[in-house]
Design brief:
- Helix content is about 25%, strand content about 15%.
- With about 675 residues, it is an alpha/beta fold.
- The strands form five sheets. Strands 1, 2, 3, 4, 5, 6 and 16 form a seven-stranded mixed β-sheet that branches. A six-stranded antiparallel β-sheet has the order 17-19-18-20-21-22.
- The chain is globular, with a radius of gyration of 31 Å.
Amino acid sequence: MFYVVLLLIAVAGFAATVPPRTHHKYCVIGAGPAGLQIGYFLERAKRDYVVFERANQSASFYVKYPRHRRIISINKRFTGKTNAEFNLRHDWNSLISDNASLLVKHYSPDFFPHADDLLRYFNDYATHLNINVQYNTNIGNITKDGSTFGFPSDDPETEGLFFMNDTNTGSVYTCQVLVVATGIWVPKRPSKFPGIEHLEYYDSMSLNQSEYEGQSVLILGRGNSAFETADHIGGHTALIHMLSRSRVRLSWSTHYVGDLRALNNQILDTYQLKSLDALLEADVEQMAIEPSDDGRLFITPRSDMPDDEDWSELGEGDDDDIDYDDEDADERARHENEVLSPDDGPPDDGPPDDFNFDNFAMREPYDRVIACLGFGFDWSPFRDDVKPQKGIGRKAKYPAIRGTYESTTVDSMYFAGTNTHSRDLRKSSGGFIHGFRYTARALHYLLEWRYERNPWPSRSVPYVDLLDFVLKRTNEMSGPYQMFGFLVDVILLPEDSNSAIYLEEVPIDVLAQFENYTGHSNQRYIVVNLQYGEDFSGPGNDVFREDRATGEPADAHNSNFLHPVLFYYDAPMEKMASARLPKPVKIHHMVEDFLTLWNAPVSHILPLRRFFEDILGQDLRNYFADSCFMAALTHTNLPPKCADYMNGQGFVAGEELTKAAAHVGAQVVL
C-alpha cells in the first residue's frame, strides 16, 4: 500500500508539471488576406481552427504599406454584367465569400484604391463572417518537439503535433495542421558594403515631399516599390537615378502583374525623353558610398571586389533582354553578377587604386540614396526541426513548397497567400489577392480530402449538356482566368456512363496523383486550361505588333492572348514536369477572342462541339422537335438530344398498334 501511494503521488506530481496548452486541429498564422480567406473556408466547413494575428487588427501590413498608400490592384466596379463569378475576374482586391456586400467596390470608388479602404474592408470581412481570429498573439518557437515546452517527447497524444507559443504571454498552442499565411513582409536589406550606413530605406523614408525639393536622389531597386517612390517624389527632385542589377520588366509586356505597372512608370518617360532622370544596371553590392565634406554622397565601385568580379563602369543597359530561367540557377547567377563595361574599359585585373573614369555614369554626387529592395519571408518563428526549406535562386525569398502547397520538408505544414508564389513566380498571379484567393480555396479542398476524407467538390453533367456547361464555364470562371496555367478544370469521363464529373480549379501540379489528392478516379478525362501563346509575352517582345492576334478557328493553336485549351487523356498521368501538361491524346484550342467571350457559333461553339463528339462518340447537336419526330420514325438509334425529347411521347404500343405499324413499315420506339 505504501508503494502504491508513493506511485500515485509521483504520477500526480509529474502531471502537474506539464504546462497547459490549447489545441486546435487547424492553426493559421496571419490574419492578412490569405489567412482570412482560408479562415473563411474553415469557418464554413465548421472545422476546429484558429487564426493567429500578432497585431490588434486584420491585414496589419496595410497600416504602413504601401508607403505612398495607393494600391496597384485594380478595382473595376463595372463590367456591364451582373454575373458575380465573371465580375471577380476584374476585381483584384476582394476575397471570396457568400456575402455580396463584402466586395471592395462597396468600399472605394477608386480604380486603384487607397490602402486605408482595404484595411477597413479586410477587418469588416473578418467581423461579418465570424472568422475566429485571435489578435495580439505573436506566434513563435514553432516545433514538433514538445519537450521544448515541457511536454514528454514520447507522449502518443501529442505525437506529430505542432507546438508553438505566444511570445507575448508564453501561452502554448498545439495543432495537427499548420497553415502559414504570414505573407512576404520583412523589408529586404543589402549585404554590407562600404558606406551602407548612409542608406535610407523604403520602410522608413520620409513621405514629406518638400524634403526632396531640388535634391538628386539615387534609388536602389527596380520593383514597384522603387518606382512608386520615384513617382511620389519625382515632381520635387532635381533628378532621380534608379540602380538595379536587373532590367525593367513591364507588366503589359510580360503579362505578369508583379512587374512594373503603368501607373508607376512616370520615370520611364522622363528617362527616355532625356529629362535628367535615368535607369542603370549593376549589382548594388558592388558599389561603395563615400560622403563628401558637404554631406553629399559619391558612388564608386568597391575597391575590395574579388578578382573574378566584373567591376568596371556602370552602363545604361545592353542590347539583350535576359529572361531568366528559374530552372537554370548557374546561368542566372552568371547574368546577375554582370556589370556592363565601356568599350575601352580598364584591364580585367581590377580597378586602379585611384578610380578616375571621366565618363562614369554616376560621377555626380547624390543628396540621398534610398533602398527599395522589396520584402522577404519571415523565417524567425520556426525552430530548426520544422524550419521550411528555402526556394532556389530567385525563389529563395519564398519557402519551398509542393504542388499541394505543403512544405517540401515538413509534413502537415502548409502555406497560403503570397508565400506560395514560388509555384508560379513570374508566370501567374499566385502572389496577389486575385490569384491566391483561389489557391487558398484549392488548399482547403486538399485539406478536406486528406484530413476529413471529403472528396474534391464536383458535379455530374450529362453528356448532352456538357457543351453548354463548358461554354458557360469558360465565359465566366474567374479562378483559372486569374491563375492561368496553374488552376485547371477537370472533366472526368467515367466508363459506361452518360454523364461527366466536373471538378473546378484543381492545381495543375496534382494531376499526376489525381486520385490521391482529390478522391476521384481519372481513367479518361479532359483538362480545361487557360493560357497565353507560348512565345507571345516576355521582355523585348512586341506585344502590340500588327499580327498579335488571330481570329481564324483553323489558326486557333497560334492564339497569343489568353484563351481556353482542352487536353484529352485516355489514361492517368504517370508523371509531369512542374505546371507543364504532358502530350495529350487530343488537344483543342478555342481561338482567342477580342472580347474574351468564347460564344461565337462558328468560331467557338462548332469546333468545340466536334471535339467533344470525337471523344464521346455521340451526336451532341441540338434538334428541333419536328426533326426529332422524323428521326424517331425513321431511325433505330436517336441522337441523345432527341432521346430526351421522345421520352414518354406518343402512344403506348399495344398489340394491335404494333401490328399496324409493322404492316406499314413504321418504327416502334420503346
